[in-house]
């Protein structure tokens, strides 16, 4: 880990991106835990409209992430990041002024769109700064650490602001923070090169199949098919922390315990990333690492179904270990598999895969086989499902060595 920190310090712009991620998640979590309450109690928005607003936020963020990545590949990562920051800042100002159902939906949709623009562009910008470095996985682990540090501290600061001032002050503070980040982020455009993916017609003799975009990425980088499928599986497991886990924790130990689980998850991510990231970065078999992470999450699900405080906490810790193992590894796989000029689009495709997996999980959790109906049996079913998906993910992974050997053989034939 010491070598990773040294690399961050020596790479101009890298520390700013990592600090920016912390600041953005910190600013977001100043208000996100209290957003639904603010809209309904303070602004008088109807509950059904708040539900629609949160749905708009989810699909704007996850569903439009591919659009955000494609835009970053066309106009540059830094301009797209700054546009995302500006939309986030405006969305919080709209929340404060929203006095109608339509205004709430628009504000939350704009918030989701800001995330859809920023996230793939930010990952692509970071990967360009560390292009070709062996510590790619460790750097993305630090990014995840910065995110979760903001996630852990933001709600505490937001709660303090609620005690000291009016409810709207948190939204205004978050908006001001995002606007303040625009200036240093905009300066990064001189450090991060932009090579736009040119359409086929711009290059004589290039076949139409070489047009930039999602289909071209899948054709030229077949490993992306496995990466996206793995993202669907990871999204299916990860989203349990947003819906099924709080539902079970509240039913077993009361609503206040849900906040404890979230804090444990966020703090554990920060600590485990610092402890494990360097060691995990040395492991070259990505399929085995990801499968092990999914297996660890499966064990956490099994413990979570027992209901006691001890098993709930142990279950969340195992779940967090899996999250720490998988999340940066997926980002690193994209950085290694996809050319720099198409990487933001690829990160967006991964986000879309996670959204699909999360949708499947939430549908199951809210149905007749969900935790509210089955109780502990739901988590046993999830344990079995996650274990099977871990094995399938490992078995279905393309073997990088074979692909490398084939490429070398083609080059030898061409040269001969």
From TrEMBL:
Annotated transmembrane regions: 12-36, 48-71, 92-119, 169-188, 224-241, 256-276, 283-303, 309-326, 346-366, 378-397
Ranges for domain Major facilitator superfamily (MFS) profile: 13-401
Subcellular location as annotated: Cell membrane
Membrane topology note: Multi-pass membrane protein
InterPro entries (alphabetical): MFS (IPR011701), MFS_dom (IPR020846), MFS_trans_sf (IPR036259), MFS_Transporters (IPR050171)
SUPFAM superfamilies: MFS general substrate transporter (SSF103473)
Regions annotated as coiled coil: none
UniProt-listed Pfam families: MFS_1
Keywords: Cell membrane, Membrane, Transmembrane, Transmembrane helix, Transport
Name of the protein in its database record: MFS transporter
Organism: Streptomyces zaomyceticus
């Amino acid at each position: 880990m010491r070598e990773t920190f040294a690399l961050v310090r020596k790479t101009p712009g890298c520390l700013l991106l990592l600090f920016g991620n912390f600041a953005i998640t910190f600013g977001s979590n100043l208000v996100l835990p209290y957003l639904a309450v603010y809209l309904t109690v303070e602004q008088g928005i109807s509950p059904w409209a708040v539900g629609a607003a949160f749905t708009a936020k989810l699909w704007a963020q996850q569903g439009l992430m591919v659009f955000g990545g494609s835009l970053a590949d066309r106009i540059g990562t830094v301009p797209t990041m700054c546009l995302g920051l500006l939309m986030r800042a405006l969305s919080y100002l709209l929340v404060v002024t929203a006095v109608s159902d339509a205004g709430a939906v628009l504000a939350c949709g704009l918030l989701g769109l800001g995330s859809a623009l920023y996230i793939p562009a930010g990952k692509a910008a970071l990967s360009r700064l560390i292009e070709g470095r062996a510590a790619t996985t460790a750097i993305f682990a630090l990014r995840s650490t910065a995110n979760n540090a903001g996630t852990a501290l933001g709600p505490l600061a937001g709660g303090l602001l609620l005690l000291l001032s009016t409810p709207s002050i948190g939204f205004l503070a978050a908006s001001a923070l995002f606007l303040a980040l625009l200036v240093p982020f905009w300066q990064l455009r001189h450090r991060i090169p932009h090579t736009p993916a040119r359409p086929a017609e711009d290059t004589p003799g290039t076949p139409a199949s070489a047009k930039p975009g999602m289909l071209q990425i899948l054709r030229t980088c077949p490993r992306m098919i496995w990466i996206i499928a793995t993202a669907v599986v990871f999204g299916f497991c990860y989203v349990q922390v947003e819906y099924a886990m709080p539902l079970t924790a509240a039913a077993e130990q009361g609503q206040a315990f849900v906040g404890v689980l979230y804090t444990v998850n966020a703090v554990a991510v920060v600590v485990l990333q610092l402890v494990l990231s360097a060691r995990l970065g040395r492991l070259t078999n990505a399929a085995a690492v990801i499968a092990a992470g999914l297996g660890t999450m499966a064990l956490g699900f099994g413990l979570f179904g027992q209901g006691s405080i001890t098993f709930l906490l142990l279950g969340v810790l195992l779940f967090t270990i899996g999250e720490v193992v998988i999340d940066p590894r997926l980002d690193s796989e994209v950085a290694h598999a996809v050319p720099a000029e198409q990487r933001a689009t690829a990160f967006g495709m991964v986000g879309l895969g996670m959204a699909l997996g999360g949708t499947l999980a939430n549908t199951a959790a809210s149905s007749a086989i969900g935790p509210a109906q089955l109780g502990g049996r739901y988590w046993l079913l999830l344990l079995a499902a996650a274990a099977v998906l871990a094995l399938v993910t490992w078995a279905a992974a393309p073997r990088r060595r074979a692909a490398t050997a084939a490429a070398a053989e083609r080059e030898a034939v061409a040269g001969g």
